[in-house]
Specification:
By secondary structure, the chain is an alpha+beta fold. The chain is built from seven helices and eight strands, in the order ααβαββαααββββαβ. The longest helix has 31 residues.
Length: 290
């Protein structure tokens, strides 16, 4: 399911807010870091509003699992109001759709503020370091003079008598711009992989593990069409067998919900499909209101 269609209304943009707040409050040790952090702020803001991380440009499809197999809130929300079952999987062989690319991430979601800030700081480090380097070089008269000397030497090789100051400035600007764009793209890619795993602390009890597949909006996902569901077709999703490399589902156990009275039926379903796994009961002593 596309990440922005989950029940968390801060999905994906939560990482943006953390990144922007970090960049506003990060320590400015000198004018170089001040310039770099201001530029990084602009890059993040632009990327999420109109750029590669915006809703208009990118979709992120997620498959969610939980390390909390017996949680009252999840029984209520995802298992027919406590009457269903939870299925335990061995996820060591879970795989994304073939050919889906290096942007795919399968990892636990991060809920603690300090951990999220650390990850986002790391993602932005490419751009910040490059911006500091660029600013330091452009304000270093000796460095600029050395570049001008090299430029003059190239001109002499091509038989040009006078120093082309405008050409030199354009060359310098293009070089800095190219390095800046490359570092911005790298940081944006890292932010894209992180954004779908940074979750509001209010959801921490779910202990979610998530497989995230970033995708350029408007295109099919590695041959699989983007489908729609919901009353108005607004929820985008992709169908894929995440366990295609292991044959049948790698079920490790099944647990009956606090109000589930279908033990016999569940046993029959497992037996008919060739599964010999533990069938447990929830430890939550919930009273039936029926």
């Amino acid at each position: 399911t596309e990440a922005r269609s989950t029940n968390d209304k801060t999905e994906f943009v939560h990482a943006r807010d953390i990144a922007l707040e970090y960049l506003k409050t990060a320590e400015r040790s000198d004018q170089h870091s001040e310039f770099a952090l201001i530029e990084a702020y602009k890059v993040v803001e632009s990327a999420f509003i109109t750029g590669a991380l915006s809703l208009n440009e990118t979709e992120v499809f997620v498959a969610s699992f939980s390390a909390a197999g017996d949680l009252k809130s999840q029984w209520a929300e995802y298992a027919d109001h406590h009457k269903g079952v939870s299925i335990g999987f061995d996820l060591r062989n879970v795989r994304p759709p073939k050919g889906s690319g290096v942007g795919v991430t399968f990892a636990p979601c991060v809920y603690e503020q300090a951990a999220k800030e650390s990850l986002i700081q790391s993602a932005l480090s490419h751009f910040v370091r490059q911006s500091v380097k660029n600013y330091r070089q452009l304000t270093d008269k000796d460095w600029v003079a050395m570049q001008a000397k090299d430029w003059a030497m190239v001109q002499r090789i091509y038989g040009l008598d006078s120093f082309d100051r405008d050409g030199f400035q354009r060359s310098l600007d293009e070089r800095i711009s190219s390095e800046t764009l490359l570092s911005a793209a790298r940081s944006s890619f890292d932010l894209l992989r992180l954004a779908s795993h940074c979750k509001n602390r209010a959801f921490s009890e779910e202990k979610e593990w998530r497989l995230a597949l970033p995708h350029t909006k408007g295109r099919d996902v590695v041959g699989e069409p983007v489908l729609r569901r919901g009353p108005d077709g607004s929820i985008h999703y992709v169908e894929s067998n995440l366990f295609q490399s292991v044959g049948k589902l790698p079920i490790t156990r099944v647990m009956l919900g606090p109000l589930c009275d279908l033990r016999k039926e569940v046993e029959e379903i497992l037996a008919v499909n060739g599964y010999s796994v533990p069938l447990l009961e929830s430890n939550i002593p919930l009273r039936s209101r029926a």
